[in-house]
Amino acid sequence: MTTAPETSRRQKREAAASANAKNADRRNGNGKKRTNRAKSEARLGWLIAGPAFFIMLAVTAYPIAQAVYDSLFSFRLTAPDERSFVFLQNYQTILSDWDVFWSALGVTVLVTVVTVAVELVLGFGLALVMHKALLRIRGALRTAILVPYGIITVVSAFAWYYMFDINSGFVNSWFGWVPGIDSDLDWFANFPTAITVIMASEIWKTTPFIALLLLAGLAQVPDELVEASKVDGASWRQQMTRVILPNMKAAIMVAVLFRALDAFRIFDNVFIMTNGAANTEVLSLLAYRTSIGRLEIGLGSAVSVILFACVLLICVIAIKFFKVDLASGTDAKGGK
Amino acid sequence: MASTGKLTGKQRLGWTVLTVVVLIYALFPVAAILATSFKTQADLGSATFLPGNPTWENYEMILFGDAQGLFLTAFRNSIGITLIATFIAVVLATLCAYAIARLNFPGKKIILGTALAVSIFPVISVVTPLFNLWRNIGLYDTWLGLIIPYLSLTLPISIWTLAAFFRQIPWDLEQAAQVDGATQWQAFRRAIVPLAMPGVFTTAIIAFFIAWNDFVYGISLTSTEAARPVPAALAFFNGASQFEEPTGAISAAAIIVTIPVVVLVLLFQRQIVSGLTQGAVKG
User: Fold this and answer.
1) N or C: which end of chain A has fewer CB within 10 A?
2) How confident is the model at residue A53 (pLDDT cuts 50, 70, 90)?
3) Alpha carbon B154 to chain centroid, angstroms
4) Strands, E, within B7-161: which ranges?
5) Residue A139 has pLDDT above 90, yes or no
């Protein structure tokens, strides 16, 4: 861009200025010619943005509509001829099943709450370390934490599974001195230990994402504010709670919401490590086992719809009550 | 907490410790499965971290031996399906983001909002209807049958990331080049494409990671090695005999599919970080 001859610089600037003026004209104008132009611009916009938009709708909106429809039928692929309309009976079956549905919902909520809380603390620590680190090591740190981010969740699940596995794992022998851990401890036989390892894998893999979002938030806290508070004699703790955290609220909210929605869909780790044994079944796994495993399309669709409704509910709560502004995120000067 | 200037000995020690802690956190599970992948069948029961007699036999088994059919076909499926899904998503998202950044048209917000909604969509909710539909129209257990749903994973983040990148491009350069006598196409190619390429490339890496990671579509919409990708295939690995756990083979396969990730991260960490944070935070 610097190869253009010096003499044309001014011309360029003028051209750019007039183009800007034209743009402004177009936005404010209401003449017939301008309307045509706006129309053709709108047509062009939809022409090139449309394919992506319609594909996104086709691969999500259509299937979810189909799922809602299917959920009103008693329909098994093993007996396709016996398909019959049962209205909300599938939902009634699911919602009255305390041992299966409500247990899965409870585990899902537990995993969501615990992982997001731990990740927020760990991620903030990681973000602080990267923020303060010298340039020389910052690159190395970022490279290292991108490895968990990029690794396949199933691989992470196997890595954690084999570490704790009673036959091939080394955790029992390494931590034999901790009360409650010995060579006979089968981590995946009981709920508390099994869910702990599942959550550990989930946390390890996704904390980097939160850390990077928080790092971006940290970078937007004005240095002058922090310096000013130091001059005023604020302790490290006061700087954190009074200056840095309030200025990062928007970034924190966005990170928490994104991760909460992601954690609520947890599937891979549970599938690999326990496949729902020891009461570790989660909603996604229940939906999978019902429809793909047992081919009960009607019932499985109802579980899918309920899961979808839960995700919507989390979104509505976040946006209504916590005022998370997903669209603008933290670019509005660090938020309020 | 020094950020600039010379460090005292204590600070240097503190930073060394912190760096080591972060490195261990990030790399320990990878090291663990790497060590496992070199264990012999006997070592697997020894409950130690390092293999007693390091061996390549697990790698031989999945690359040249009995598990070859299972792993190599899955690897080929994963690479093919992921690259095609990434390519389509990036092309469509580039056009879409260009329109959003550049043109004034009603519905921009709707497109961005839809992308956001699709990105938080629970994959499992759409898998049942797709499973049923794909079986009826013959897309079940085919590459195309995975490429299409993968677009629901790769398109939204690509649109957001690219829209954020494109908003920062000084588009006036294009007009300036036209004033200099370039045609519209030349202006676009010479002035804009060089500025836009890094963003497009970064988006492609992120989209690749996401598609590469997929498991739910992979196990639900395939049934044979015709289209089954690696994460799904790993869940179906068997040992050499029914009395052997496939631990070594799975570990070796896990390491092989992690190599592309590590290479991309090593080469492009700066771009990936900026792409991730722009797409997710700024929008």
Assistant:
1) C
2) very high
3) 9
4) none
5) no
